[in-house]
Q: What sequence folds into this?
């Protein structure tokens, strides 16, 4: 939907407010309209309920020298108007999802979030999503940690608490939505997909007309490919940036040496950092917003890398990933973005690479990874099981996943470490790398495979099992029996040989 | 981040302490969007002023990078014949923008009023 209206000299973006009926969408828009001294238009309503949409037009902010015209609309929340809602969501550059977070509504709200996240991610590039947790002033509002726990397994969602009736949090959610829309605009522009001309719907009347015509039989899908072009997008932005045209481009990033970084500024995740410093542009900002409130403070490990973890996230920065200027830092960010794009199919979700201020004009490159269940955790849960047969089956399942991961990871453009801590343990159809991404120029030793890999990873676990279980012999028997049902070159067979020799 | 209500309260305090107050806003540097506003003059387009001043800050940051200056911007002061405009960086990506009538104030008073309350904007 985003388009540059050359005639008016503005960038037009659409922020769509979605959410179930009575969650506070219209109240939020009304509060926002009041705050930005604008008018809200509602083409049709019954007993205060929106039938088509609410519309607020607001010109504010600046993007590449052009004013930003925001078409802020809300959808009808009634389930029987789902088709109208769908049509409006299709046009969003960013979505603000208004949810009732009171105890009795939260379960339904969470289901709504899950469906909306899928919708946003199906777009190309993805539509940024801000979750406006509304009605936080209610006595029975669900505690924030419970909300975060509910969102834990989902792709990045930026969370803002609000009370639409008092107006608190409304503008913050909106500005965050605009930022995400601009990230999407940058992504579209850099792959040549940002349109020019008059917006499809310049006024509420035009939008109403189009909705009515759609209901009478028209259609308007859009599509395209983005993911592979994401790293190129960053690079194009770098090339076209006026900031960089004044600076000589260096072919290789020039990290600083350790002696310079003794007084390095501590990393504080900042969801408001400028576009072009975050990859991926939209999801990365949402993820950053999510981690910003967690108060994770990474610490230096010795005099080298920086690490931090907690609340389901891990932060990491290599010791040498400190850069003296924006140019060299951005070059490295592009390298990392390319690495992620090239290996997307192998990686767990919830990842971002960012450049953060390190003080004295320097920038540090960080990766943030959402923690996922690992094979190590699956094994830790399985080994204390009282049933020897169950333990044997879990051991074989872990061995099979590890072997499959090793084979699957062999097609990546960088050597991904394959061990119990880096392979996902949630039993998904394909193995996922859940560890920290190795640096683009890292040269890991070649990983062993087959029986050698299983012996390296599982022997210590099996030794511990033998020490702690009086029924170890029975587990060995079960593994051997199950392995006899498979071929000689199977993970189960390799495991039976390792078990027998442990 | 402070709530919108708290932000508005801080701007209110600045409007009281800064003689000749015309308008003030807290602005998101990336988008130029205002996070809170307070104006004493209906003919002063605070939305546009905030947006274009975000470009000013970005350009200054760009200049600093080009010159290899490693310090950070504390504030930017623009004196017109009849107004004083002060931009005070607050946090990493927001700034306070304040315009006052020059006849009723001076640079020291403006800075003092802003520094007294800017801590409440983060």
A:
């Amino acid at each position: 939907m985003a388009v540059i209206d050359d005639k008016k000299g503005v960038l037009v973006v659409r922020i769509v407010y979605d959410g179930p009926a009575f969650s506070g969408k219209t109240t939020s828009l009304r509060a926002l309209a009041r705050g930005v001294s604008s008018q809200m238009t509602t083409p049709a309503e019954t007993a205060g309920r929106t039938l088509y949409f609410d519309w607020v037009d607001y010109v504010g902010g600046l993007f590449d020298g052009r004013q930003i015209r925001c078409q802020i609309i809300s959808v009808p929340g009634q389930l029987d108007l789902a088709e109208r809602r769908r049509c409006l969501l299709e046009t969003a550059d960013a979505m603000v999802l208004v949810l009732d977070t009171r105890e009795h509504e939260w379960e339904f709200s969470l289901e709504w979030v899950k469906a909306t996240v899928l919708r946003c991610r199906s777009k190309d590039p993805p539509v940024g999503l801000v979750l406006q947790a509304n009605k936080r002033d209610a006595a029975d509002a669900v505690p924030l940690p419970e909300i975060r726990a509910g969102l834990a397994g989902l792709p990045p969602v930026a969370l803002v608490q609000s009370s639409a009736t008092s107006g608190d949090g409304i503008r913050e959610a909106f500005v965050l939505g605009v930022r995400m829309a601009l990230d999407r605009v940058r992504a579209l522009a850099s792959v040549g997909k940002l349109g020019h001309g008059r917006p499809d719907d310049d006024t509420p009347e035009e939008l109403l007309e189009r909705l009515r015509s759609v209901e009478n039989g028209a259609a308007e899908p859009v599509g395209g490919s983005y993911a592979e072009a994401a790293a190129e997008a960053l690079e194009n932005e770098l090339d076209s940036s006026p900031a960089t045209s004044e600076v000589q481009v260096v072919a290789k990033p020039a990290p600083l040496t350790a002696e310079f970084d003794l007084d390095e500024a501590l990393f504080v995740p900042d969801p408001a950092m400028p576009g072009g410093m975050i990859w991926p542009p939209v999801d990365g900002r949402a993820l950053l917003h999510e981690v910003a409130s967690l108060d994770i403070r990474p610490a230096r490990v010795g005099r080298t890398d920086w690490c931090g973890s907690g609340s389901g996230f891990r932060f990491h920065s290599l010791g040498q990933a400190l850069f003296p200027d924006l140019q060299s830092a951005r070059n490295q960010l592009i390298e990392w973005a390319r690495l992620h794009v090239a290996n997307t199919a192998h990686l767990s979700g919830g990842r971002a690479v960012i450049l953060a201020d390190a003080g004295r004009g320097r920038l540090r490159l960080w990766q943030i990874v959402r923690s996922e269940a690992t094979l190590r955790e699956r094994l830790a849960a399985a080994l204390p099981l009282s049933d020897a047969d169950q333990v044997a089956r879990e051991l074989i399942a872990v061995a099979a996943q590890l072997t499959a991961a090793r084979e699957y990871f062999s097609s990546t453009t960088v050597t991904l470490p394959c061990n119990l801590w880096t392979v996902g343990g949630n039993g998904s159809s394909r193995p996922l790398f859940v560890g920290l991404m190795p640096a683009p120029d890292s040269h890991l030793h070649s990983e062993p495979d087959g029986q050698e890999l299983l012996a390296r990873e599982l022997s210590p676990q099996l030794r511990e099992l033998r020490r702690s279980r009086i029924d170890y012999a029975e587990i060995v028997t079960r593994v051997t029996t199950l392995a006899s049902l498979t071929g000689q070159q199977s993970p189960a067979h390799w495991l039976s040989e390792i078990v027998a020799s442990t | 981040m402070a709530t919108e209500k708290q932000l508005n309260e801080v701007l209110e305090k600045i409007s009281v302490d800064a003689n000749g107050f015309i308008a003030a806003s807290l602005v998101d540097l990336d988008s130029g969007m205002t996070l809170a506003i307070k104006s004493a003059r209906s003919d002063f387009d605070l939305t546009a002023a905030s947006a274009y001043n975000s470009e000013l800050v970005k350009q200054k940051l760009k200049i600093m990078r080009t010159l290899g200056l490693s310090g950070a911007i504390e504030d930017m002061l623009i004196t017109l014949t009849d107004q004083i405009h002060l931009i005070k960086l607050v946090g990493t990506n927001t700034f306070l923008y304040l315009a006052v009538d020059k006849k009723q104030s001076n640079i020291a008073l403006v800075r003092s009023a802003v520094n007294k309350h800017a801590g409440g904007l983060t």
Notes: Helices of chain B lie at 4-17, 46-67, 107-117.
